[in-house]
Design a protein that fits this description.
Blueprint: H1 2-10, H2 16-21, H3 30-41, E1 45-50, E2 56-59, H4 61-67, H5 88-100, E3 107-111, E4 119-130, E5 133-143, H6 145-167, E6 171-176, E7 181-184, H7 186-192, H8 204-211, H9 218-230, E8 236-241, E9 247-256, E10 262-271, H10 273-314, H11 317-347, E11 355-359, H12 360-371, E12 380-384, E13 389-393, H13 394-410, E14 418-425, E15 428-435, H14 442-445, H15 469-479, E16 484-489, E17 493-501
Parallel strand pairs: 12-14
Antiparallel strand pairs: 1-2, 1-5, 3-4, 4-5, 6-7, 6-10, 8-9, 9-10, 11-13, 14-15, 15-17, 16-17
Bound molecules: adenosine-5'-diphosphate (ADP).
Adenosine-5'-diphosphate (ADP) is lined by residues 403, 407-408, 411, 435, 437-440, 448, 453-456, 465, 467-471, 494.
Length: 505
């Protein structure tokens, strides 16, 4: 296009384009033919208008292809009649400016078309002078409708995103993988108590410098931010403590395009101070309540034992019945309260482990003897490969195994067969307890290690249950550096596995 302009400008006063209308009068030469072809084949509209009438004096083929109108219907018609009605007054100004200004600027207008209500065309207009007076204008117009539609859809999406992020109760920060801040909302400024100046550099690294003085542990925060770049595909949740006593939860997710490539991340910051305090109050309450409950239960237990001893002398059968019922209910209560106390210890980080070297084979044998009633022992098959040793808190480990054994019995009334197997695999010792009981539905299986996950009440009179046993077991195994999981099929039975790091021999 620039070539044609230059060419046209080199040849005043006879305009090349206007000469095309009267080409019969000019001797044809090669150069003329060449430029005529370029003009005719151009995908952009090329036209001339007279001045000051602003009527079309020439239009190339592209005019028909772009607008759908026929050239013959438009030659001699005014430029403004082609312009979409809402842009007509603007068109007058733009044309005048373009033709008279010393340095004409590109402009765009909406013009009529056959297949659409309007098209967006970008215009370039060069005035042509004869004896110093503007006589006509050579114009080039490019169809930019698609670009304009993209722009407006992009604007819409941006405003939608902005509205969504402003309506959010979280402080939002969007950062590109080049660490440039792309978007933030007002809540982000409020939650961090900073003003926009802190983000004006658009650099996350610089912004972090404004945030650092507000943090109780700035280094920890920096390493959280850095790990976002090290593992860009990960969704993460972290909590950061501020000097003013607040705790902010930071949920971070990757921004991924449809082809899977990562172009940054979005972080949501929420003040979770109250939530944390509530949870702590709840944990403290459970700890205090279970501790307080334990004392009267212990005395009740002692008194029941004394009464049972005395009753043996009086030989009153009804008294024995009631006292033994009382004793078993007190045992149940003790179990529940012990579980609650353990949960409180875990939640408040107060569960301590006393490590010992434990020979797995002996340990499993002893635990079965201790916890399974002699009449049920023949149903239990114990199978240990070698006698690997683990470093563990014996009492806590026993608690885990007893929980798995008691569940296996509790949920397998019809087929009481249980297999306990252990062996070493690599650097771990693996233990599993397999039953042939009622099994667990797939959907529920995922939740059994969460606290309060009791799904079915079975014979609740004899079996106290808060759904805490597996949660406590899982926490104990994790504290030992091991893993715990379960496999189950409904009505076929369940297998609970746990591993512990093996002691080097
Ligand atoms: P609970 O005190 O209720 O047994 P647990 O935490 O030990 O609590 O177990 C949680 C839930 O997991 C149980 O309520 C039960 O629904 C299910 N469950 C645990 N072990 C088994 C098993 N061996 N067979 C079937 N269901 C089980």
């Amino acid at each position: 296009m620039g070539e044609i302009k230059k060419w046209a400008a080199r040849r005043p006063p006879i305009s090349f384009l206007s000469s095309m209308k009267t080409q019969q009068t000019l001797p044809p030469n090669n150069e003329f033919k060449k430029y005529k072809t370029i003009v005719e084949k151009s995908p952009d509209i090329i036209f001339t208008i007279d001045y000051p009438g602003l009527k079309f004096t020439f239009l190339n083929r592209a005019f028909e292809q772009v607008t759908g109108f026929e050239i013959k219907d438009w030659l001699g018609k005014s430029f403004s009649s082609l312009v979409y009605r809402e842009d007509v007054s603007l068109a007058g100004q733009k044309l005048e400016q373009s033709l008279t200004a010393s340095k004409p600027k590109n402009f765009w207008l909406r013009v009529k078309a056959i297949k659409k209500p309007f098209l967006f065309l970008e215009f370039q207009l060069i005035p042509q002078k004869t004896l110093g007076k503007i006589k006509e204008g050579i114009g080039v117009a490019r169809d930019i409708t698609i670009r304009k539609e993209w722009e407006s859809s992009l604007k819409f999406q941006r405003s939608l995103l902005k509205a969504q992020s402003e309506a959010s109760i979280d402080g939002i920060l969007v950062v590109s993988k080049e660490k440039e801040i792309i978007l933030y909302n007002h809540h982000f400024l409020e939650i961090w108590q900073i003003n926009e100046r802190a983000l004006s550099s658009r650099s996350e690294e610089l912004a972090t410098k404004y945030l650092a003085p507000k943090l109780l542990n700035p280094d920890e925060f920096l390493s959280i931010i850095q790990s976002t770049y090290r593992q860009p595909a990960e969704k993460t949740y972290d909590e950061v403590k501020l000097k003013d006593g607040r705790t902010l939860g930071r949920y971070c997710a990757p921004l991924t395009s449809s082809d899977g490539s990562n172009f940054g991340h979005i972080s949501f910051y929420r003040d979770v101070t109250e939530q944390k305090e509530d949870a702590k109050r709840k944990d403290d309450f459970v700890a205090i309540a279970s501790h307080e409950l334990k004392t009267p239960i212990t005395s009740l237990k002692a008194f029941t034992q004394i009464l049972l001893e005395r009753q043996k002398k009086t030989r009153d059968a009804s008294l024995e019945f009631f006292l033994s019922r009382m004793s078993s209910q007190i045992n149940n209560l003790t179990e529940l309260v012990t579980d609650l106390l353990d949960v409180a210890r875990i939640r408040t980080g107060k569960m301590e482990l006393n490590y010992d070297q434990i020979k797995i084979s002996d340990f499993l044998k002893e635990t079965i003897e201790l916890s399974v009633h002699p009449s049920l022992r023949p149903w239990i098959k114990l199978d240990v490969e070698g006698n690997p040793t683990v470093k563990a808190d014996e009492q806590r480990l026993r608690q885990v195994l007893m929980n798995l054994l008691s569940n296996a019995q509790k949920y397998s009334k019809r087929n009481p067969k249980i297999i306990v197997r252990a062996g070493s695999v690599g650097k771990e010792v693996i233990v599993f307890v397999k039953d042939c009981g009622i099994g667990i539905e797939a959907g529920k299986l995922k939740k059994i290690f969460e606290p309060f996950s009791q799904f079915r009440k079975i014979d609740s009179e004899n079996m106290p249950s808060l759904g805490l046993g597996l949660y406590i077991s899982a926490q104990i195994i994790k504290m030992h550096g091991g893993r715990i999981w379960a496999e189950s099929r409904l009505n076929r039975g369940s297998t609970f596995y746990f591993t512990l790091p093996k002691t080097k021999t």
